[in-house]
Write a structure and sequence with these properties.
The complex is a heterotrimer of chains A (338), B (144) and C (182). In chain A, 33% of the residues lie in helices and 22% in strands. In chain A, strand 5 and strand 6 form a beta hairpin. Chain A has 338 residues and is of the alpha/beta class. In chain A, the strands form 2 sheets. In chain A, strands 3-2-4-7-1-8-12-11-9-10 form a 10-stranded mixed β-sheet. A two-stranded antiparallel sheet of chain A has the order 5-6. The longest helix of chain B has 12 residues. Chain B starts with a strand and ends with a strand. Chain C is 11% helix and 35% strand. With 182 residues, chain C is mainly beta. In chain C, strands 9-8-7-10-11 form a 5-stranded antiparallel β-sheet, with no helix packed on it. A 3-stranded antiparallel β-sheet of chain C has the order 3-2-6, covered by helices on one side. In chain C, strands 4-5 form a two-stranded antiparallel ribbon. Classes of the chains: A alpha/beta (338), B mainly beta (144), C mainly beta (182). The interface between B and C is medium-sized, with 29 and 28 residues.
């Protein structure tokens, strides 16, 4: 049985370079505001799914403390993903299909300022062939960027134009900057931040009761391709393309697309994979390039795409999340307004 | 008290390898490169245990490929990070060894001008090999 | 062929993962540390449910209400043991303990949340019991003023208070602490 499920509330904390308070304290405003915008209290939530990555803080089960943001007494039904919050939202969406509850909460926190993410990112890789080389995420992204440039699909100039659009500045001047890992320059890589975000989902009539313009999840899908870069065609994002097809991106015009492109070339690749034309407003929020709290980034993209419908008068938007090296895993969420 | 402290999280693992990965590392220890074969005859180096296209197990037995090959992708690291394989500027390279149908990712020690898709390279073996991906110290130009 | 070739297959691979982290002590923990150095144990009392939590978290974990310094209340340095264990220290590399010792969960007088990992001294291990009354043995003011002992996360309870010892008072009846075992 499938149900109509919508996003009825979303909030994220302003990204910080370095948060000083505890992770739970950081999360409180996001969860409180999302609940308030949705018009529900913690007692109304039937299922909670949270997202974070213990490797950001270097402590196992670090996420357990952040559960206190839910006021878990009496005990609540909850789950956790060591992934981007977009997958916590996916799990909550699946749970709501069981039919016995009407409201779910998905939240995510990411404090990236305690570690060297470039180095930590190596630890998620194939332990036999890749991790011992400590090849980092910027290096892997650079391999994909070079593959795209070498194939003629994109140019460094097009990458600079993405950066100029999001960060401001002149694209030509950006090309004078030195490489970090050629062909990526520092501005092609994401600004790492600390942030938290929360989304409230509700079903059918409950969503209509709570929200004047619910952002209905018209389609949501996630796909993963092979992990090892040497067996992949890095000029394509098959996983994003298939996830987009399965989520129904092509069934109608997309007005706003929030893409979790951490690197400038990823936006160009994802536009092509998802079939987004020049008329689509991509990452009006600044996207993941402007602020990357890692495990929160995809949830923020979906939340921003939802707000475009809830508050922004739009009718059809999409939010995207990714994980793994070179866009290995992708989630696409298509949202529609009434 | 100090508002900040630094600490090192360290944990040792001993990973079991199985016949495919273990076979590949045994080959590296012995100075040769082995790959796995898919049902339709593609040779995967480094060997994966399952065909990434179909999900099927690879065929029994590994086949030998050459120590030389061609660069199929690259990225140039201006300033190596502390744990990168080399401590001077180098390239990450995807290398399709002669006889293989997939590419191996490793470091390439060569001047920037020599790094390009299509460049011919060969393995530089580590002095002491133990059955590890770093038995390949890095790649170097074929004609150097 | 190399002189390293043997017939033995490579079956295992060692892997050392080491990563560098920064621990940042949050303002609320720094404040608690400062209060402990001054010889005061301070908790936060929730304006909604009235429960007192120590160390303070900056929120009530049951009501999910944010709390601040204005919610601070003093908590005594006498307590009841709600549970305990006798640790036999395994001599792993880096272990500093050599003899058996007792760690206990305590409910401080004036608090509603229990604190764990508190060391009990001054009594044979087999005489330690649930409900036993204890009092804090503080480090001297000079010791508390130093940089040492803050621990990685800068807390006060296992440094400013060195350990707890029996106070000699009659045991607390079980009904009074049975909801605070952990």
């Amino acid at each position: 049985m499938t149900r109509d499920i919508a996003i009825v509330g979303y909030a994220s904390t302003p990204p910080q370079t370095e948060v000083r308070e505890t992770e739970t304290q950081m999360l409180f405003p996001a969860v409180n505001e999302a609940l308030e915008r949705a018009g529900v209290t913690r007692k109304d939530v039937g299922f909670t799914c949270s997202a974070s990555c213990d490797y950001l803080s270097g402590a196992p089960f670090a996420f357990v403390q952040t559960l206190e943001v839910t006021g878990a007494w009496p005990p609540i039904s909850e789950s956790h993903v060591e992934m981007d919050g977009a997958w916590a939202l996916y799990e909550a969406w699946v749970r709501l299909h069981h039919g016995d509850i009407d409201v779910a909460l998905a939240f995510a926190s990411g404090i990236t300022s305690r570690c060297n993410w470039r180095e930590v990112s190596s630890v998620q890789l194939d332990p036999y062939y890749l991790m011992p080389l400590w090849v980092d995420d910027v290096s892997l992204a650079a391999l994909q960027a070079q593959a795209l440039i070498g194939s003629g699909k994109i140019t460094e100039k097009a990458m600079a134009e993405v950066v100029a659009r999001i960060r401001g500045g002149d694209a030509a001047a950006l090309l004078d900057e030195p490489y970090v890992v050629e062909p990526l320059r520092a501005h092609d890589t994401p600004t790492m931040t600390d942030a938290g975000a929360a989304i409230i989902l509700a079903t059918g009539d409950k969503a209509r009761e709570l929200c004047e313009h619910p952002a209905w999840i018209a389609g949501i899908d996630h796909r993963s391709e092979a992990h090892y870069p040497g067996v992949r065609d890095l000029t394509l994002s098959n996983a994003a393309r298939i996830a987009g097809e399965q989520a129904g991106v092509g069934k109608g015009p997309i007005e706003v697309a929030e893409l979790a492109a951490q690197f400038s070339h990823e936006e160009l690749l994802l536009r092509e994979a998802l079939g987004l034309g020049a008329d689509v407003d991509v990452n009006p929020s600044g996207g993941t390039l402007a602020s990357n709290p890692v495990t929160v980034s995809g949830l923020i993209r979906i939340g921003e795409a939802a707000n475009a419908i809830i508050d922004g008068g739009r009718k059809r938007t999409l939010g995207h999340a990714s994980a793994g090296p070179c866009l290995q895993q992708n989630l696409v969420c298509v949202l529609e307004g009434d | 008290m100090a508002a900040e402290a630094s600490w090192t999280l360290e944990f040792p693992y001993r990973r079991s390898l199985g016949p495919v990965v273990g076979g590949f590392f045994t080959g590296l220890r012995d100075g040769k490169v082995l790959g796995s074969r898919t049902r339709d005859g593609r040779v995967l180096v480094p060997p994966l245990e399952y065909d990434p296209e179909t999900g099927e197990s690879v065929q029994d037995g590994l086949v030998e490929v050459a120590e030389t090959g061609v660069v199929t992708g690259w990225a140039w690291v201006t300033e190596p990070m502390r744990k990168h394989p080399l401590d001077h500027a180098f390239a990450w390279a995807l290398v399709k060894l002669d006889g293989a149908d997939s590419s191996l990712l490793h470091a390439l020690d060569a001047p920037r001008e020599a790094v390009s898709t299509g460049a011919r390279v060969r393995i530089r073996w580590a002095g002491e090999r133990k059955g590890h991906i770093t038995d390949i110290a890095c790649f170097e130009q074929e004609n150097s | 062929m190399t002189d390293q070739q043997t017939d033995e297959k490579v079956a295992f691979m060692p892997q050392m993962v080491n990563l560098e982290y920064r621990i940042v002590t949050s303002p609320i923990h720094q404040r608690f540390d400062k209060q402990m150095r001054e010889g005061r144990i301070v908790g936060q009392k929730c304006p909604s449910c009235g429960l007192v939590f120590v160390p303070p978290k900056g929120f009530c974990p049951l009501c999910a209400i944010v709390m601040t310094e204005k919610d601070e209340v003093a908590v005594k340095d006498t307590a009841t043991v709600t549970s305990f264990t006798v640790i036999t220290p395994i001599q792993y590399q880096g272990q500093k303990e050599r003899e058996e010792y007792v760690l206990a969960n305590l409910i401080l007088d004036g608090a509603d949340s229990s604190i764990g990992q508190q060391r009990i001294e001054g009594i044979p291990h087999h005489d330690v019991r649930m409900g036993m009354r204890v009092k804090a043995v503080w480090a001297t003011p000079e010791e508390r003023a130093g940089e040492e002992g803050g621990g990685m996360r800068g807390w006060g309870l296992t440094a400013a208070v060195k350990h707890w010892e029996p106070s000699g008072e009659p045991d607390t009846p079980r009904e009074q602490y049975q909801e605070h075992i952990l």
